Each structure stands twice: as C-alpha cells, then as structure tokens.
Amino acid sequence: MLSTHNGVPAWRVLRVITGHFDPSTVYVFNGQNTCVTLWQHELQLCRNLLFLNISNCELTSISAIVSLTSLRHLDISYNSLVKLDNINKLRELENLRAVANPISRFQ
Predict the structure, then answer these.
(1) What is the pTM of this model?
(2) 32: domain CATH number?
(3) CA-CA distance, 65 to 31, in Å (whole number)?
(4) Which residues face 25 on adjacent strands?
C-alpha cells in the first residue's frame, strides 16, 4: 500500500507533477519552482528516477534525494543548500547543476 501525505495517497501528487500513476515508471521528475513539502515523500517512491530537476524549491538539505541511487542528472540550483553531505551515495550521477546555492561543503 502506498503511503499517505495529509490523508492523500502519495501517488496523487506524483501523478499531478509527472503524469504517471506508478512510481516505478517515473524516470524524469521536473519539480522546479514547486514546494518541497508537496513531493518530498512521493519522491522516495520513484526508485528508477534518472533525471531530477528541483531547482528553486527552497531546499535546505539533500537528505530526501540521497536514497535515489539511480539518478544520473540532478539540478538543485537556486535553493538554500549549504552542505551536500552524502552526495557520494549517488554513484550513477553524471551531471550535477548546483548554481546559486551558498554551498560551503561537499562530502
């Protein structure tokens, strides 16, 4: 059974953003200019995600995405990220765009 967020099935928000009903079929997630709380729980369901654009989403941490180990392209620009701890867990990552963040530490 899928998790719920404020009583709404998790896939409902995912469907609005991606157009998919099944999280295992989501390969591209373009959540730029959206609120993190809308999709942070749903994103964890997308285990096959390859491309993730979450620029300008008021992010302060990447903890919600380090479990998405299949990611190849990640755009986290225009957020409020100071640290990129555990970015090394994204072993498949080929392209990282992180401009306009006050990043002081990569780990």
Answers:
(1) 0.79
(2) 3.80.10.10
(3) 13
(4) none
